[in-house]
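fyi for ur records
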Amino acid sequence: MTRVSGTVLGEAARRDWRAVARYWGPSGNKRLTASTGLVLFVLLAVETLTTLALHTYLPVHIFLGLLLLPPVALKLATTGWRFMRYYTRDHDYRFEGAPRPLLRVLAPLLVASTLSLFGSGVALIAVGSGGGVLRTVHTLSFIAWGALMIVHVLAYLGRSLRLGRADWRRAAGGVVAGARTRRAALVAALLAGVILALATYPAQQAWLTHRHDRHLAR
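which gave:
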């Protein structure tokens, strides 16, 4: 009886492990990356549009930039997980293959420009300065990030449109374990972004007031 129970428990453990593997395996990873990418595509498009009339939409630009931090972190986490699993020779990720050579070359540059763009933006608010070196870094990072992002969007938008909605549709086809967890992760990232943007709103307003006073003093 003990041997039978042990066998049943062993089978159950193996099934649980296979379910977890599908959670964080290539299929689940691609779906979470794609759904996060779709959300970021919309939010980053709005953020970029504010730069066309930055003097008018600077408050929106700052608020949205802070809101974007958790979703961007989630996107970096999903792509970083795939990178780590591939280069640690995980069988499933190796079987999926690597991105195209050009995208593999551009990926570290895109990550670096993203970190520089958002890092310098946060630093500008934290330091309370109206410009200087941080503003120059922020501007140059945006230019580099924009050029790299165009290539990234052209390469992945089709896949994001195909896979990004799969976890949110009842009849998506090809059910992949962990859809509820992936949906929760994305919603949590967006909620965390809203909370962060609202919590730092006084600092945002203080920075805008300081900047306005500096312009009047000139």
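The chain has a mean pLDDT of 86. thats all i got for now
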